[in-house]
Amino acid sequence: MALSAVLTEAEIAAGLQSSQAAHSFDYKTIFVKVGLNSKSKDQLTKAFGILDQDRSDFTEEDELNARALTDAETKAFLAAGDSDGDSKIGVDGFQALVKS
């Protein structure tokens, strides 16, 4: 599934624009810029499925490292959404992170 199944082209462009500079990834800003914070639970589940490349029902560090994030940005994102310290974010944790 492509991100365009959940977000409009304008939303995707806004998210990319907000994190173009090196070390500028801020998940809260991106969630707002792309409008994820206003999406339904079903739409967030679809967005999570795009991140969960191995279909394990969790997003792990290696899946986030497939994106253009620094190690520090990846670790910060995981830490923010990992409520039980297992170094993974489940769909419920992702939804809570987006809505926080």
From TrEMBL:
Record-listed Ca(2+) binding positions: D52, D54, S56, F58, E63, D82, D84, D86, K88
GO cellular component: cytoplasm
UniProt entry tagged with the keyword Metal-binding: yes
UniProt keywords, alphabetically: Calcium, Metal-binding, Muscle protein
UniProt GO molecular function: calcium ion binding
Tree of life domain: Eukaryota
Matches recorded under Gene3D superfamilies: EF-hand (1.10.238.10)
Family: Belongs to the parvalbumin family.
Cross-referenced PANTHER family: PARVALBUMIN, PARVALBUMIN ALPHA
Purpose of the protein: In muscle, parvalbumin is thought to be involved in relaxation after contraction. It binds two calcium ions.
Protein name according to UniProt: Parvalbumin
Organism: Otus sunia
Lineage: Eukaryota, Metazoa, Chordata, Craniata, Vertebrata
